[in-house]
Amino acid sequence: MSQPSVNVGTNQSGATLPGLFKQVYAKEVKDAIPSFAILQARVPFSKAQLLGDKYHLPVVLADEHGFTYGGNTAANYTLNAGISMQLQDAQIASNELTLQSGISYGAVSRAQNRGEQAVESAVRLLIERMKASAAKRVEIAMLYGASIGGLGLLASHSGSGTTRTYTFATGTFANGIWAGMENAQLDVYSATGTSPVQQNTNAAVVITAVSVANQTISVSGNSSDLTAIDAVVGSTVGTSATVYFFGAFGNEMTGIDGILGNTGTLFNISASTYNLWQANSYSCSSAQLTMGKVLAGTSVAVGRGLMEETALLLAPSSFANLVSDLSAQRRFDGSYKSKKAANGVETIEFYGQNGLIELIPHAMVKDSDAFELPLDSVKRVGSTDVSFRGEMVGGEMEYLFQNTSTNGWTARAYTDQSIFIETPAQTVKFTAIVPTT
Question: Mean pLDDT for the chain?
């Protein structure tokens, strides 16, 4: 296929370089999900009908109970009144997320001097990195969006003035969340009772370095903000210094951790009124996750209706422990393959009380957590998956925008979506896991 010619200049209408953009990369990214975006690959995005400002999905939360026991007399007995099933309207608000980046005229012009393939490479690099960054933020939100534990808890600190190094509380750090997060902006909250209090009220906290080995982040920020954060560091969920992405608190989707931890009203349905709206929790008692504990936790969900295949998302450290612990439950027949997912994620399958359980290591799951889900009951709903687009006057789609005051173009990745679980009672969160090495 011939390449479109590129004529770089400040008087461009946006037809040439965006034309190249459309040729290099389609507007939707759902067909090129990065391999680390395990949930996005396993849970297809589906556009739901928007009614008002929310998506409405019916959920059955109680059975029919209009029974009459007639005994063995064959009498013409009176029937009890009907007690209908309880069908509730789950209302899911999708959450918007926009990534803005850009490319300068100079970068494209200098690439043009090396030929059209160089221009294509420059555009492709920009879009590929935006796609990967947006997919990572969505994946993290699907796991820990609106979680009471946020992205992790800060347990100790060193430094002074406008710089600090914070160490995360044991079990609250996930390597996959923090790898590559230099220059990311954060907010830090603590709570007095149930009311979250933002500690960095003057400016964002900016990551300057990450040490995965030491589970620390080095940051810069307003000195008053960092002093306030120092005062609340600790390891108690809900009261200590809890980390969120800048501006995410109250504006991001409720992820799996938040859904499985819900005991109140979520998606317009009360877990205190309907017990099937509350997930199960199984404590590993500050020890490693074993196959016995997986089966014990699963049995709780089976008792509440789980009778289908599940996926167990767990930290790679726990996956290693389970590999060494795995025994007769492993399925090693002629159909076994070491790579079960199309994106190459290595998994293990074994049989539990519910049927097949697939163990999926996920680098963005914290060491202390594991989540067991019937993936057929997990949905992603909204108006659009991650896409690159902006609508011009008249409805025409534009993919790169000419900057009005700077020397270049702007590109935007946008999504409007949320994750939803239809059957919380058939899920399990494994807690208090301490992997061994």
Answer: 85
